[in-house]
Design goal:
Domain HTH tetR-type (chains A, B): 27-87
Structural class of chain A: mainly alpha
Oligomer: homodimer
Distance between the termini of chain A: 46 Å
CATH superfamily of the largest domain in chain A: Tetracycline Repressor, domain 2
Biased composition (Low complexity) (chains A, B): 8-20
DNA-binding region (chains A, B): 50-69
Strand content of chain A: under 5%
Largest sheet of chain A: none
Mean pLDDT of chain A: 77
CATH topology of the largest domain in chain A: Tetracycline Repressor, domain 2
Shape of chain A: globular
Largest interface: A-B, 63 and 62 residues
GO molecular function (chains A, B): DNA-binding transcription factor activity; transcription cis-regulatory region binding
Radius of gyration of chain A: 19 Å
InterPro entries (chains A, B): DNA-bd_HTH_TetR-type_CS, Homeodomain-like_sf, HTH-type_TetR-like_transc_reg, HTH_TetR, MftR_C
Low-confidence stretches of chain A: 1-14, 214-218
Number of helices of chain A: 11
DNA sequence: TAAGAAATTGCAGCGTCTGCAAGATTCGAC
DNA sequence: GTCGAATCTTGCAGACGCTGCAATTTCTTA
């Protein structure tokens, strides 16, 4: 209940093609379970969906569900964390002389552009969280790990040795980054649906880098 | 499991004195339960403490536990949210011409100075989260509600009508604020133990308002 | 002190999640 | 192809979290 590890450190983008049959089946099951979970949750509301329902809809036994996800919520909103695995490299690839927030913002934008594949699942998840704000804390909580990862990467990039312990700066930038991305994504999903998420995120980072000047007061 | 409401909207600082015997007993029970939960969790680790244990240590029945807290975690880390209730007024009391981040930072600092009462419980909780990072997501998640409250307050203060929907700005400032407070508190708790938390928070806000300039690279 | 309000408790029950030990499936080497 | 090893799936039993309900006890108030 309190533990929050992933049941399986499989990367989110496991290759649908290539590799052995085993891998393909596993990936298919994982996708089926997640889709089933999201679809059912959208239909009935998360609290009216049991693990048994999800497993049945995905065509596996209830016990198998827990071979893929550590918890019911994990199947619904737990994907985000996994995504940040590759992010670190994107960040470290930015030119050395860029200010931290700019580099991070650029890396994030790049990262987002590479994501636009799972549109479908993301749309499901977005609608779900919109209709059921109870899930929001879980989503935010899931970012905690990503944040620590990012803090390490930032410290590394800035040439600070020990990560975060002796300097608040990397931690702060990491936290603010995750926050900005989150807010911008929400914004992009809810209001600015016509704009590319990456653009909205860029805007948020621009505002941050400028010290959050007040907009015109109305 | 997914629901995240409080079992009881009792203010965190219920009057230990005054009022009837009933109120005093309720407050005592609440405190006893929280203390028991924290103490046991620190001793054995959260996952090795059952609700039955907590109830027994507090001298009430297991069923009664759930009359006071919606979940086990709520007893451990759920207090934070309640605290933000009064924050809004502090913010709205700041002079109108202050830049948003400055006003928010000042309000936060003020708010923190008023908190230094529960030192004991806070220390317990801090040590607990430090030793058991699994709890961190829950703590962060608990801030989600506070964040929305704050966004509303900021929008109100900035004179923006509808809260957050049509402008990303208040949401962003609110999110960044909660984030900064969180990081600064962590910092104050872990490293800068000699400095007042309020000071560390102020520093974090100064960095934010300055657009997060890079520290000297080493 | 008696009626009424509110808190405590036990119980029955659903749902989440885990460990364990079978049984089925895939893989790699021959 | 075949066989053994590695891996996945599944059922089962059970601990634990959490809830509704109804009976009982404790406080309040008139």
């Amino acid at each position: 209940m309190i533990e929050e590890r992933s049941a399986d450190p499989t990367p989110a983008d496991a290759p649908p093609t290539g590799a052995g049959l085993r891998e393909r089946k596993k990936h298919a099951t994982r996708v089926a379970l997640r889709r089933a979970a999201l679809t059912l949750a959208v239909e009935r509301g998360p609290e009216h969906v049991t693990v048994d329902d999800i497993a049945a809809a995905a065509g596996v036994s209830p016990r198998t569900f827990f071979n893929y996800f550590a918890s019911k919520e994990d199947a619904l909103v737990g994907e985000h964390t996994e995504r940040f695995a590759a992010f670190r490299e994107l960040l470290l690839a930015r030119p050395d002389d860029e200010p931290p927030l700019v580099a991070v913002g650029a890396a994030v934008a790049e990262y987002l552009r590479g994501i636009e594949l799972d549109r479908e699942v993301w749309a499901l998840r977005r609608g779900l969280v919109e209709r059921h704000p109870e899930l929001l804390p879980r989503v935010l909580g899931a970012n905690a790990n990503a944040e620590r990862e990012l803090a390490h990467a930032i410290a590394e990039r800035a040439g600070l040795a020990g990560a975060g312990a002796e300097d608040m700066y990397p931690t702060l930038v990491a936290a603010v980054t995750i926050t900005a991305v989150r807010v911008a994504m929400l914004r992009a999903a809810c209001t600015d649906t016509e704009r590319a998420p990456a653009d909205v995120v860029s805007e948020a980072f621009a505002a941050l880098a400028a010290g959050l000047p007040a907009p015109s007061r109305g």
